[in-house]
């Protein structure tokens, strides 16, 4: 899913900053900062103060949303069909929308009979992507996050700056996909990460408000347990919940960009992050009131299924879970709140950002067909990206609706009230997002203690910044 515009005051959005949630957000004249990159694509964690949001910008966005594409429309922006049938290879990692992506592709190929699209959607995405490039079987279109993640692929990617839909991307999606002045990506969505909870189970346990401090989070779990309700079931077989949790330790810094710059230069250590220990407190709460070490064997699908069926009250996850949850149980009464790291409620914020971009391999033999597909996807974005995929749109001419569900609605106030923080994992050294979950899994499994885990995380960080 995706999310709104970031009216931050005195804060710095580093990566994939969210954009307007259409009618769910209010106008703001605040500004946010960001992270810059060198023209070579290397990361420079320099604080900037860019006027990314203003009342005028929001007004223009609102105007664009008002004229958004009708969800039932199916426009063909691909021009004439190619003379010979070609096959486009598409690789992406959003496993929760596998069926809907395949349905969208089926619609496209039905309208373009001379184009075949081979879709592969996998969990171990980064490994497979690198393997396919190394084996000479590179996809034509694939997905990548912005900033340092995209920097590692920048020389492989096609310049999309002059594509017609580029004029409609949210302004806050541009920085993370721009290298050497070239815009390389098609922004997929905005997303937020926090605690997804069952409102009916909270009410059954006598809980009438969501926790806004770390102590309240633990008390909430206690109340659920006392009422005979399973508080947690965390899916730590997967890596993404773990790097999202670790991100909190970085993103809760007063100046995340400055801290990342110091970490990158070796002028600061991970143990110096003010709230890193609190990340382990959150892990401990999830294990104590969840499945403990058994969490390492819990898959995303199992977690979502049990939550949808009312067997557990809380899961650490994101707005993207709305579709798989409702697929199991369309009537589940759920919401979402930010994961607190401190006992100061005023400091509790939600990470919100862009999950990734579609990009085109510049060595593809079918570049024109790939560009035509992305143009078609934008033109039909209301139908597929918003209504079908349940994404909060990253284009100003697409409309965010309440039909996106309660998680998007609950995420919006964090953005409009300046209570959103960045997804720093997209600016970590390349490969660290894959390294770090393994260290946290060792902690969950009891193989390392807190101090040892932080030391191992530091060792991995040092190895990555040397490369």
Automatic annotation (TrEMBL):
SUPFAM superfamilies: Periplasmic binding protein-like II
InterPro entries: SBP (IPR006059), SBP_1_CS (IPR006061)
Domain of life according to the entry: Bacteria
PROSITE patterns membership: SBP_BACTERIAL_1
An annotated Gene Ontology molecular function: maltose binding
Pfam family, one: SBP_bac_1
PANTHER family: MALTOSE-BINDING PERIPLASMIC PROTEIN (PTHR30061), MALTOSE_MALTODEXTRIN-BINDING PERIPLASMIC PROTEIN (PTHR30061:SF50)
Family: Belongs to the bacterial solute-binding protein 1 family.
One GO term (biological process): maltose transport
The protein, known as: ABC transporter substrate-binding protein
Alphabetic keyword roster: Signal, Transport
Any one cellular-component term (Gene Ontology): ATP-binding cassette (ABC) transporter complex, substrate-binding subunit-containing
Coiled-coil intervals: none
């Amino acid at each position: 899913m995706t999310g709104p515009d970031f009216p931050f005051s005195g804060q710095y959005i580093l990566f994939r900053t969210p954009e307007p949630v259409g009618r769910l957000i209010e106008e703001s004249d605040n500004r946010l900062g960001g992270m810059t990159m060198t023209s070579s694509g290397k990361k420079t964690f320099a604080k900037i103060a860019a006027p990314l949001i203003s009342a005028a910008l929001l007004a223009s966005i609102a105007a664009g949303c008002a004229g958004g594409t009708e969800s039932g429309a199916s426009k063909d922006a691909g021009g004439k069909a190619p003379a010979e049938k070609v096959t486009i290879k598409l690789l992406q990692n959003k496993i929760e929308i596998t069926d809907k992506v395949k349905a969208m592709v089926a619609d496209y190929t039905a309208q373009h009979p001379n184009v075949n699209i081979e879709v592969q959607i996998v969990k171990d995405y980064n490994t497979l992507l690198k393997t396919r490039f190394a084996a000479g079987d590179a996809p034509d279109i694939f997905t990548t996050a912005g900033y340092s993640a995209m920097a590692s692929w920048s020389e492989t990617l096609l310049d999309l700056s002059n594509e017609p839909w580029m004029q409609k991307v949210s302004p806050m999606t541009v920085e993370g996909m721009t290298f050497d002045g070239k815009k390389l990506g098609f922004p997929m969505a905005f997303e937020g990460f926090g605690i997804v909870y069952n409102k009916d189970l909270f009410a059954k346990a006598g809980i009438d408000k969501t926790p806004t401090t770390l102590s309240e989070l633990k008390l909430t779990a206690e109340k659920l347990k006392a009422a005979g309700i399973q508080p947690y079931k965390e899916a730590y077989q997967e890596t993404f919940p773990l790097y999202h949790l670790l991100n909190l330790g970085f993103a809760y810094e007063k100046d995340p960009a400055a801290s990342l710059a110091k970490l990158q230069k070796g002028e600061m250590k991970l143990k110096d992050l003010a709230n890193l220990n609190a990340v382990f407190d959150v892990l401990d709460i999830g294990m104590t009131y969840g499945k403990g070490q058994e969490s390492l064997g819990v898959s995303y699908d199992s977690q979502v299924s049990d939550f949808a069926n009312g067997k557990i009250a809380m899961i650490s996850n994101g707005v993207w879970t709305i579709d798989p949850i409702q697929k199991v149980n369309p009537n589940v009464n759920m919401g979402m709140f930010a994961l607190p790291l401190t006992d100061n409620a005023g400091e509790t914020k939600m990470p919100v950002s862009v999950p990734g971009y579609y990009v085109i391999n510049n060595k593809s033999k079918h570049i024109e067909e790939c560009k035509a597909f992305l143009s078609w996807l934008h033109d039909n974005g209301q139908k597929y990206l918003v209504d079908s995929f349940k994404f909060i749109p990253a284009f100003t001419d697409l409309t965010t609706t309440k039909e996106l569900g309660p998680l998007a609605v609950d995420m919006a106030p964090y953005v409009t009230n300046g209570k959103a923080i960045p997804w720093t994992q997209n600016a970590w050294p390349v490969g660290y997002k894959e390294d770090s979950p393994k260290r946290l899994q060792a902690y969950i499994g009891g193989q390392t203690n807190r101090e040892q885990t932080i030391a191992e995380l530091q060792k991995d960080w040092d190895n990555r910044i040397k490369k």
